[in-house]
Amino acid sequence: MSTTQSERLRELLEPLVSSQGLDLEEIEVDSVGRKRVLRVVVDSDTGADLDQIADVSRALSAKLDESDAMGEGEYTLEVGTPGAERLLTEHRHYVRATDRLVKFQLTEGGELVARILKVDDDGVDTEIPGVKGRKPTARRLAFADIVRARVQVEFSRKDNKKEEEA
Asked: So what's the pLDDT on residue 3?
């Protein structure tokens, strides 16, 4: 059975990332001319701070240096987090996106922008924001009804919890 370079890298690096308390979300090897870049995306339920990124980057670099997983030649290692508008592909991604606004592409066609309120094994409970003075509405989405989901950046969200405390 043949394995790709990304699969070999995942097998090599995932235990090391896990030992640092993080999840290995993505591995990508890009070649631009003679230059190669290994991009490793990590995350956790509580996020990853710069110190954690630096620690895992040093650990991965050392592991890669002692193996031949990247073959001969130079490469650049980039370690980071998924970013603000992450694509939700795993159950844990939906859990981490709880209370975030998400754009869903639905199997029935069309799109829905809603806030994730709760996630279970079968799907998500969402709240569709009210428009022009209307109240928000609740909607349940089964995972089978979701083709694609991506977190949306919110610049002017009103934090209801802070408003209630004031």
From this structure: 61
